[in-house]
């Protein structure tokens, strides 16, 4: 008995289709017939009617119909359903036999052919004997058919029908023309109708038996008849009714009296009917009905185990039920049904697998007893026909329906035979296939955990362990590890065995202490190259096989070194390492700590601990090895700490040193060496989470390591890398300067370097200047030099690199001045970097250290002073335009904005176009000191020479100021600041008048005034002058005069004013007009004339003089 | 009768598992673990639809042959799962719901304990008591 015994028969699983037999076709030699046959069977798509065709010879013998029983009174049925019945109606007994015959209506030998056809029909009829199968005739004609009802054809058709004893509906004509497929489809539809009537009559026939049955003896027949009706309905394509009949049949099956002998038959039939019901439900798109039916089926059948000795059969049957339902479900999904996460075929495959596992267990139990028994002979499972008559019966007592087995001895051998067969079934393969199906389904419906769970059975253990480890389900992890350990033991796979042991001993394992201790002992045995004890729950026979495997392994020389990456597991030795500090100075020894902790019940000893670092040259310092006999030991639950220290190389300054791995050697060279290797600074799959939890709790409680004497393992953090930084410099760098800097000045920053080293600092170098990384424009506008004696030019750099300063003895002091010229204002950051090298000794090793000290300073640059310049007339009135050849004044004003006193050494004018009105220009600002906010002004009298050609605006020149800070040393360079004078607009005046008068008058004293009138044109000018009377003055002279002035000459008019009142007095107004050219604005001339004069009161002195004169 | 009470932290590792009877416990663990698939699927489905107006009770997660698995998720994604024998028909949806509510309240009390470190397994006698009480009451 193999698994295939439980397979559903194919005739049950297929979709029943009406069976139509075609006769009279010679498909081998006749091309026309071949074409007709091809048209029938090719392209049978869903839109064609469901018929299965078969070509049979004309004299084919159909299965004989047994004589119909007229009374069921004494009939006792032998079983529920005959094994051949379904096949008989699907493939052997046709619903319709179609006779093809080549005959044209106008055939010359019509009579002969007609009788031949009638004979053929008769042959078919006789071979069908008493069956209700219909017969139809198809005439294959060469000519296209005439319209019906025409003389010859209708007459001959009825004649033929009569001869063959056919109804008119059963005679067809098939013209063999171009439209063959169209005709065939029409023929098919006609055949389909005939078939349906045939099945209808069959249903009626089966139903008619019912009245002869009685409930006591014919229970089996009730089921059989219902099943048959349903099956015929299905053939008729009446699936709704079929479903109804199947449901009735199903309830009838369960009404049968069940006992041990017929249990298998009942279950088999129930399974068949259930399958049909579920199938139809899915077909009707009512999957919930299907599921409900299936649940009911399972609930009803779960307890019907049957014979206890063959209990595995029940499991096999259950498994098959689930599997076939799963397949139906899956098929329905392929046809468009949508499944959901909680209801998909996967669950059914899973259950099927479960039952297969039960089957395996039961089979193991039940078949143990028969070990060594020979297969009984003669074979009780052999039947004469080679198969069973009824579904689900025992081969050795077919047709037997009473409660007790007929022959106890036969029963025994039968069961024995079944058990022996079962023993040879490859259960595991079946289980794995089912599980794979289920896994595929769960993958489809997003059940990753379900998938893992099933994969666990499928022995994809490593993969699953990883899942459970990350999800922190320790219980499940332990269970799988235990299984895996057993496997590893049985396969004598040393590496796996060690890994699983390690993890089972670790803190994630939920095993009991004594189990752990057993595993640890085994592990120690493996490490000393001995055979470990067998795992519990192992089959004794396989355990002995494993033992010999282990013996082979241990005997094998060499290959006794193993490296295990433990990072991704949770091993029983935990390891964490850290550098004592995130950075070390190059002159300090680098300190490193490795913490080990064991979670196993017994102390663990190891022989070597090594840390590997990113720079492998340091590795030699980070190894500890057991010396001789005494090995290093870690006690359970205790933390052990190993310290390493080494000196970094000076080349590594500025670099990072990382731990790349930690290796721990268990065992010894004599036995077996196992290297546990951690990447980075240790830790394992669970430690990150533990550290997180620990940090949470310590944050709350401020639980610190000091409070607990014992080191808190979980809160121990790993420090896997450290920086090597340069030695701390022992020099001081001081800057002194007077901020802010002033634009363009040579700003002096004095730098003092003092050594506090104990040795000579060699190769001292200074880098000074603008700190890199600031605004690019600052680099252009900043100049740094060491030479303060003169103002540096634009070629000086912004940063002076590596200025050698020589050596510095201990305690020696060194001073340097750095001059900075800032062309633009704003803040700047300056960097002063002093580097040197020195010899030192660290732990007895001499190294040359490079040290450096940086000092930065931010300096603001300000404008030292503001200069304003303006042109005014000689009367100090602001000028908007300058008249040619008339003197005017230039006023300059310097306002100091520097916080430090400024010394203005001199100033000068560089004139263009205009010239000085005075013989030599002399600066009025010689050695003037300006405090903050003070002003210094100058005034120059200038004149524009007459020959200047007048083109609107002209440049007038520059104003130069030389200055320095007052506090700076006298020999420091002077800074020249240049101010460009404003441009002026020039104009010509035709007439110029100016007065010549004393600077003041005195009451009642004569005040002579001379007016000069100049003609600046090349024409003779006539001028009328008049003096208006004034209250303050009496005057003598021409009151009104008319003058004529020649080109480029002048006339003088003299008046004698006599002041009458003291104080500022308005002079008598002089009115000038040019009668020849009245358009000339004489008002413009007035601005050249003084308006007022100060008149002093009459003094006493003249009196004294007069007294003296008297 | 079988009852299993579970509490999971948001990362899906168990904070508390209790089952009666204790034999065959491993199988229950698997059942509960696999039920988390459905829980996650349900949460993600709901999350899309209706932000925080979420019903905490997830209802029957899936019926297996022998057990019914019910789920409940708090707003902080702590999951509760109860597994009962499917033959036990006396437990209706409402009873399960109130059991979950009680469990949630008790869990909140545990979390309020200043000495409890969230994420650690629950070792509270009160919580144990409440769970045992429910087991007795429904048995």
TrEMBL record, chain A:
Trafficking protein particle complex subunit 11 C-terminal domain boundaries: 1020-1072
GO terms (BP aspect): Golgi organization; lipid homeostasis; liver development; protein N-linked glycosylation; protein secretion; regulation of response to endoplasmic reticulum stress; retina development in camera-type eye; vesicle-mediated transport
Places the protein is found: Golgi apparatus, cis-Golgi network
GO cellular component: Golgi apparatus
Keyword terms, alphabetized: ER-Golgi transport, Golgi apparatus, Transport
Keyword check for Transport: yes
Domain Trafficking protein particle complex subunit: 262-506
UniProt xrefs under PANTHER family: FOIE GRAS, TRAFFICKING PROTEIN PARTICLE COMPLEX SUBUNIT 11
UniProt similarity note: Belongs to the TRAPPC11 family.
UniProt protein name: Trafficking protein particle complex subunit 11
Organism: Amphilophus citrinellus (Midas cichlid)
From TrEMBL, chain B:
Protein localization: Cytoplasm, Perinuclear region
Gene Ontology biological process terms in this record: endoplasmic reticulum to Golgi vesicle-mediated transport
Family annotation (CDD domains): TRAPPC2L (cd14854)
Main location: cytoplasm
GO CC, alphabetical: perinuclear region of cytoplasm
Keyword match Transport: yes
Ion transport among keywords: no
Keywords: ER-Golgi transport, Transport
UniProt cross-references to PANTHER family, sorted A to Z: TRAFFICKING PROTEIN PARTICLE COMPLEX SUBUNIT 2 (PTHR12403)
Protein name stated in the entry: Trafficking protein particle complex subunit 2-like protein
